[in-house]
Design goal:
With about 220 residues, this protein is an alpha+beta fold. It has helices at about 1-65, 80-85, 215-220, and strands spanning about 90, 115, 120-125, 140-150, 160-175, 180-195, 200-210.
Amino acid sequence: MKQQRSRGMAGTILVILIFGLLVSISTAYIKMVQTETQVQGMIDNSDRALDAAFSGVNMTIAILQSQKSGNIRIPFINDPTTAKERIYFVRPGFLSNDWSLINIPTLSAVSFPNATASDWFYLNENLSFFDYGETGSSTKPYQFRVHSYPGTDGGGTIIPASYTIKSQGRFLVYAADQTTVLATYTAQIIADCAIDFTRKVIQLKRWRYMPIEGNASFAKAIYY
């Protein structure tokens, strides 16, 4: 009788242990799935920040591609002096030495008459431009800013066939009230663009990631 009771208790303990093991495995699996989902969500949001950064590159190329002065398409004149008349995006209240690292000692509205001060641009959920006439533009999830400047050789001479763009994108995750920011994902890239004077097209030649820069560093032109 005692032997049968011992066997019964052993069987019960074994069943409990098996159930405990199954519960542990299930819990671990659920946790693993949750972790993978969170990580995948972070990767997706980082990719969205990169999308915003590329929006900045594409916008800059599109604006430059369409620049005209009368019947003259300024970007496609193969001349260093005319290249100074291209549209360049610089920071608001730009400093004269912002391009000194590429050996252009003075950035001024006289030397570069179409240098355009700009800050953050905002995009809606479809990555199309937000209506600036509406309020609350800064609460849109996709945002980017750009800094563009001419390509130069080591001595500061402008290379007309080269145009460089730094673009910083960010994707904001909002709470249900669509106002409170829960998380901000950022990405920064630098793009080297080639200008084809014969075909009259501007092409993205190469690009790479960059560390996120603050306002002052982002406004400084650097070599690719």
